[in-house]
Amino acid sequence: MSVGAIDFAIKADGLSASDKLVLILIANCVNDSEGYAYPSQRYLAERTGLTRETVNRVVARLEEAGLLIVTHQYRDNGGKRSSKYVIPYESKSQTHVTQDHKGSDAGSHAHVTQDHNIETVIKKRNIKQREANASRLSEDWKLPDEYAAWCKENRPDLDPRSVADSFRDYWISVPGSRATKRDWFAVWRNWVRKESKPGERKQSSASIPSWADLPRDDSKLADHARWHRLPDPKPGESFPMYRARLSSAVRERMRAD
Description:
The chain is mainly alpha-helical and 257 residues long. The chain has three domains: 3-131, Winged helix-like DNA-binding domain superfamily/Winged helix DNA-binding domain (Arc Repressor Mutant, subunit A), CATH 1.10.10.10; 145-194, no CATH class; 207-256. The protein has helices spanning 3-11, 17-29, 41-48, 52-64, 118-131, 145-154, 160-173, 184-194, 221-227, 239-256; strands spanning 36-37, 69-74, 80-86.
């Protein structure tokens, strides 16, 4: 077990519950003197309660986010072995990472991969730390003068305060990290650009079946799906993945109808 790796996993931001659970479980398997672990898919699935397919998707997301380095292992006969997982935390044993993030010689530190991709991981980690400055929109948010002025200049057809009401109500209701933004002024400008013109006829709701109109609030997706006999969420499935799967099911049903 590595206290450093577990601490790194616990402090990782912007992860779903299943992603953080898998990362912490892998961190719990890390040998602090070596800096890596070999938990099997079966072990991760059984301990997290997720399917192997879900575990694979989670690991891929963690690797893409720079929170994990995965090296696939193979036997001499070509069969697969448990993958090698490296979590890029800093510990006394990781002296192979110098101040300029250069890998030292492989003879003394065998767990540094041949292409020294730990450098890339550390850079990604630094990016994620900068992104930690993001914040949610406060529930008592009021339209700043700068925001109102930009709206009047670029969309004089809109009432800034009316737009601000829908903007605030939407973003304070969005759950999880999707509602965490670094630049709310940029989000506001994009929102204003997409606003329909007053009196402009929107797509008739009558032309869209109620079951095909997915709610914007992620927390309401499962209830909508059950009510309209759409697929239920899978254990450990993130909201973006579930929404994408529902959208695909809706398109299939509309083509069939």
